[in-house]
Amino acid sequence: MKVITKKSELSSAIEALKKEGKTVGLVPTMGALHDGHVSLVKACHQNNDITVVSVFVNPTQFNDKEDLKRYPRTLDKDVALLEKNKCDYVFAPSVEEMYPEKDTRVFDFGHVGEVMEGVRRPGHFNGVGQIVSKLFDVVKPHRAYFGMKDFQQIAVIKNMVRQLRYDIEIVPCPIVREADGLAMSSRNTLLSPEHRANAPHIHKVLEQATRLTDKMSVEEVKKWVVEEINKNPYLETEYFEIVDDTELQSIRDWSEDNVKVGCVAVYAGPIRLIDNIIF
After folding, report:
1. What distances in angstroms separate CA 111 from CA 4, 117, 121, 239, 249, one per listed residue?
2. Within this chain, do residues 154 and 223 fall inside the same structural domain, yes or no?
3. What is the rounded CA–CA span in Å between residue 64 and residue 105?
4. Which among 34, 37, 124, 201 is annotated as catalytic?
5. Is the pTM of the predicted complex or chain greater than 0.85?
6. Is 116 helix (H, G, I), strand (E, B) or coil?
7. Which domain does 198 fall in, by range?
8. Phi, psi of 277 (to 5 degrees)
9. Which ranges of 85-210 does DSSP label H, i.e. alpha helix?
10. Does one domain contain both 145 and 28?
């Protein structure tokens, strides 16, 4: 495994491998890696000759400066973990390397970028579009792997791939959970012991909600989920929406012919957690 910090060096290495007919997969991450990331790396390794993992805390997708400062950075541990899991190249650039000048591009993701996270985190998805497109331009992968925990992000990236006409397959991978049900996230390490102990309540409520569709309307289930999560004094729901899985339009009725996904954002103290479940 090789750790590379320069775009030009990685591009040259990948180009040479592609000339040999090798397929290339990319796993974009912000580091502080956990078993959820490892599952993406394994999926990438199974389906490609070469696995590239980027480790870069991207400043342009943080609309909260404190959140950016707080975000865990554990590069040495990340590199050691990737070495054990058949990664070929780690791309760990500096901010100056990725943004030698300010990126002024503004993306229009349409409806998928305007709801849920798009409303609550202004500029977040534009920053995601900036960095993911930059990584795609450097690596030019055949496939790129993203975790389903960031459900809306996958819809946004698919939209960007269509807009910019990238010949890249976006591969969504299942959420990986802790034994108690909490969706794995780098932010979990920032939770206080009390908040960590209570955070699994989020997934528990979502699971219960999927069994209410024959007893309650969509609006009643949405109200029930928020109330049930908020009964826990350590948790405060920011939003819960039930949307279709492609355009993220709000579901009005259970009889609609589409895949229905419940998406939630919850504050556990100062730490914001997201999760989702398919109904």
Report:
1. 37, 12, 15, 17, 8
2. no
3. 20
4. 37
5. yes
6. coil
7. 186-278
8. -150, 145
9. 95-98, 117-120, 124-139, 151-164, 193-198, 201-209
10. yes
- Give per-residue pLDDT as tens, 165-193: 999 999 999 999 999 999 999 999 999 99
Q: Are 152 and 124 in contact (CB under 8 A)?
A: no
Task: Determine the residue type at 267.
Answer: Y
pLDDT in tens, 92-131: 999 999 999 999 999 999 999 999 999 999 999 999 999 9
- Looking at beta carbons, which pairs linking 160-164 to residues 24 or more positions away fall under 8 Å? 160/107, 160/109, 160/129, 160/132, 160/133, 163/107, 164/133
9-19 burial code (b ≥16 CB/10 A, e <16): ebeebbeebbe
Respond yes or no: is residue 201 known to be catalytic. no
Give the ranges where 58-150 is alpha helix by DSSP (H).
65-70, 75-84, 95-98, 117-120, 124-139
Q: Which candidate, 87, 92, 9, 99, places its Cα nearest to that of 51?
A: 87
Residue with tokens 């405060």: 236
Q: Is residue 105 part of a domain?
A: yes
Q: Is 145 left (phi over 0), alpha (psi -120 to 50) or beta?
A: beta
Classify residue 168: in a domain, yes or no.
yes
